[in-house]
């Protein structure tokens, strides 16, 4: 197999498993950065940017992740995190109210879940957009446009979130690695969309 690259000196993993190992290391770094919660959008956006670099022969390492994160952290990232956290708390409060036995609780819970799913798709697709590194408003605007125009991609985003949540539920330590494969899935959906619609 002449097209297969051989392992270089000092390389821990072979060429077939290198990206997988890199995704897991970036996932672990992302989990650590997400711990304050308000840093979650910036952490996921940075992971997507690092993984996007794999297609351009740039290294996908935790070191590059932290270097890029140091360059881009700004007040807008914390505001985006605060908005995301407020949305999660509002959704949790809505579900608690629906579970309290109020009239029409079933319809209310279903409506709240649908709105939350749409908001999550737009937010996650915004994290995968290159614009999220510098301008969250532009990233959200483009992500909302993509979410409506690319329904298949939005379905893939929901499937990736469900898979990450299921893995974390089945085995708790996987929760610390789940952001890596999730970021890879988000990046793949965005790259797929970019290839389909040249910008």
Automatic annotation (TrEMBL):
Transmembrane domains' residue ranges: 78-101, 107-128, 149-172
Keywords: Membrane, Transmembrane, Transmembrane helix
Protein name: Predicted protein
Highest rank taxon of the organism: Bacteria
């Amino acid at each position: 197999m002449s097209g297969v690259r051989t392992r270089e000196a000092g390389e821990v993993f072979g060429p077939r498993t290198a990206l997988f190992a890199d995704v897991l290391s970036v996932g672990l770094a992302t989990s650590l950065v997400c711990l304050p919660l308000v840093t979650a959008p910036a952490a996921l956006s940075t992971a997507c940017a690092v993984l996007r670099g794999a297609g351009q022969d740039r290294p996908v390492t935790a070191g590059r992740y932290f270097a890029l994160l140091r360059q881009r952290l700004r007040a807008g990232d914390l505001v985006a995190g605060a908005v995301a956290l407020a949305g999660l708390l509002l959704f949790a409060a809505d579900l608690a109210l629906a579970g309290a036995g109020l009239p029409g609780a079933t319809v209310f819970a279903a409506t709240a879940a649908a709105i939350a799913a749409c908001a999550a798709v737009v937010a996650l697709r915004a994290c995968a957009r290159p614009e999220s590194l510098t301008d969250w408003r532009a990233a959200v605007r483009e992500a909302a446009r993509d979410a409506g125009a690319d329904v298949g991609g939005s379905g893939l985003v929901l499937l990736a979130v469900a898979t990450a949540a299921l893995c974390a539920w089945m085995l708790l330590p996987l929760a610390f690695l789940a952001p890596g494969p999730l970021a890879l899935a988000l990046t793949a959906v965005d790259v797929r969309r970019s290839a389909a619609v040249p910008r």
